Amino acid sequence: MGNDSDTAAHAISVRSLWKVYGPKPERIVDSPEANLPRKELERRFGNVVAMRDISFDVAPGEVFIVMGLSGSGKSTLVRCLTRLIEPTSGTVLIGGTDVTAADKQHLLDVRRNRVSMVFQHFGLLPHRTLIDNVAFGLEVRGNDRAQRRDKAAATLELVGLGGMGMYKPHQLSGGQQQRVGLARALATDPEILLFDEPFSALDPLIRRDMQDEVIRLRRDVNKTMVFITHDLSEALRLGDRIAIMRDGEFVQVGTPEEVVTAPADEYVANFVRDVPRSHVVPVDHVMIDPPGHEIAYCSTVASGTKIKDIVGAMARSDLPVNVVDTGGRSVGLVDRSHVLAVIAGEK
Amino acid sequence: MATTTTTTTTTTLQTPSVVSAEHPPVVEGTRKIEARRFVVPGTMILALVVVGIATGSNVPTWLDAHVRPWIDHVWSWVQIHNTSAPIFTDFLTPVGNFIGYRVDDLVSFFTILRWPGVLVLTACISWRTGGVKAVAVSVPALVGIGILGWWDLTLITISLMIVGVVLAMLIGIPLGIWTGRSDRAQQILRPILDTAQVLPTYVYLLPLVVAFGIGNSAAVVATVIYAVPPAVRLTSLGLRSVPVVSTEVGLSFGSTRGQLLSKVQLPFARRTILLGLNQVIMMAFGIVVIASLVGTGDVGNQVLQALQKNNVGLAFSAGLAIVLAAITLDRASTGERTTSRNPNAATKWSLAHPREVFAIGVAAVVIVAVVCKGAGVHSFPKSWTVDIQESVTKGSRWVTDHVRHGVPLVGGTESASDFLVRDILRPVETFLTWLPWWSIVATFGAIGWASGGTRLAVLCVICMLGLGALRDWDLAMITMTQVLIAVIISVALAIPIGIWCGRSPRVERIMRPILDTAQVMPQFVYLIPVLFLVNPGQVGGVIASVIYAIPPGIRLTSHGLREVPIAPREAATSFGATPRQELFKVQLPLAFRSIMLGINQVILMVLATVIIAALVGAGGLGLEAVYGLTKKQVGQGVAGGLSIVLLAVVLDRITQAWGSRPAREQQ
Q: For residues B448 and B451, what is the distance between their CA atoms, to the nearest angstrom?
């Protein structure tokens, strides 16, 4: 029972999710054959395992990143959450509703009201104006015309495209198009946003803009997000937690800090090798306990501040930095040697 | 300098061999298959020779399937029972009547509008679909019909076409939606559509005459059968080419299947479906003359009679009227409406107020019609017509006197034609009929086997035996000779021109409008120049087939060359390949499938003209089919038609196999 109430508290709860392609896929699930090498399995049974035994929970308001190279099964995973691809076995609970067991009507309800998706290549409908694109979700769920126009116009405003409602998608740049994609997902006011590599088709500068947009949105509207990407820096920038996926499996799930400082295996280690530690490791990780008496320090920072953000202060002074919690109470001290050790990659 | 060039050339040359060295098993496997390709057919031919010597060189009588007497029997049954049997009284006759009445309705609708009303109506529709540009083409074309003096008869033709096209779309679009959304439906319908597309029209004309009797309804139904496949195909293609992501967008926001269709798939497919409508119209025009074989009293019938009487002036004038009608409907149905970035105020208003625009259009047509009624205007005024028949006939006489004979060096068209008949067609024909029948069957079996394996070989043998079973062997050999010669000439002309077009944007620019027009032209138009150049006979048939078949050959070759991705071509250039090397080593191999498809189309086109070529005196199966139709020798007509189909299937499947083979080997 305790387990049930536990899952109900999660925005998304996934248990033992499998997707196997090919004939009679059920027989492969949880069988010894599933562990055969990919080529062997395809040759002998004609099956391909796209996703094996995936389980995870996402808390309300959390940004959960799924990262992996192409072909790792991450796009399959995000599509299985709303059954755009039918999973072979396993359960998906969204806000406590079992999506995998839902009938047609309930599934439509989940898709129309509770989850929205942003697509890699934007997926705007070229025959519709921006406003009608944004209103699409409202239209299929049957909101009346005036209502959905108002809502769509307001949402366009929110993503910075106010007043451009009568344009057609082809008149927009890639970044603007994806803003429309974002607005379309937000317009139905869902609890959960799914992002399928939304920015990978954009130029690096625009991509950064869009990431800022997501960070801003997250602060303003506080939605639960599942974000698929193959870009590590994007994952580290946006994610509360990151799941690293390889050959249809989660290799590691953890905070950006955990993934960078304690990679689960060589694969992940290779991935994160070039990430500067100081960008992900917070001061909490290296600080020493406060001595209990007043000492001199050069500045005060909040707990959770990244190491790179105190490098400047340390360069200007020989004194340590004071770390305080949200109540303003000192919880530790960081000095030069700690910071340099992290930058040198020793910690 | 010279050394550098040689080195780079060798590098490019070596690349393929390096690739194949990496996969030795594949190469060996292919070699084994190559060897089997020749051993097995060899033994098969040997076996057949033994059987053949035992049975003699003529088609044996036991092969006769007695198709003709059986069909004649059915025909006489129909003649007796077509007013009493339930299939006629409860189904075919009502359907036929319904269609016939709709055609009559349209004709009288046009009569009520009077000719200025029809012009205004056409102008309104073309403006809606293609803007001012479309009006500027469709209205003068329509006026041209009037000036030629064919107004009334052409409007009958247009009415027939419209009823046929509407029915074809009504049947085709739902079927297309079905096949576009369900793989199973696609599997079921595809072979049927394939067959319908290969089937020459006249094959189902006769059964239609049996079912509906002679008249408009049979012609309309023939049009529908002919025109439904492209409607289905293009609708289905449109739905299937909707990007996956758009479908996912639809589904992810909770669309039902119906919403997905109406809000995502159909809007996406709209353009392709309209293209389908255009194709349907053009196909309908393509058969207008053939349909008049079943006795509609329209302008197509005039062309037919003129062709049969070798009356150049009449054929030209009536043919021109049909072409003008085709142009009118083409423009009115799918003019490219360009959405300019800065529409002027009038366009903006008309886009924003579709209902008002519609009302204005209707009002304009009604007003014109009422005014004309008051003024007593009926048909296109006689005094405005210009009779071009006389001058065309004169021109043709001049051609007869000056071009057919006695041209220095070349010798004139008639002399060339004599040469073609005497020294090429006759000898090949004699050779083919002299060969024992079974050796030809065996040869086609072997070609089929080498091209596409056992299944194709069996299909080829069965079809060839079918020719014998229909007692059409000798006629089939005559037709085959013409088809082979026409195909060889067409391919020899089309591929070089296609390559030229594919490589030179300037040539492409010149050729494109010519090819586009050629595609819109109904088949019989190609017969008219033939009447100028040569006397009725086999060569006329060959020339008509060649003219008809060349455009798709050119089009597909140049299309294939232009579709070759830029990357391998740039790679070749960067390795120092000359344009010639680039053509032979990169572009042509990569365009191979498209060119093969072009050859396949050429063969189908040539076969499609077999019957129409018979109208200008080409003999063979076409003549048998036409004779059967016009003289109501139903058994004979059906047998001739079926034989053409059998030939078509054999040649089509073999060339299709050529086109798909490299794909298989690459895997």
A: 5
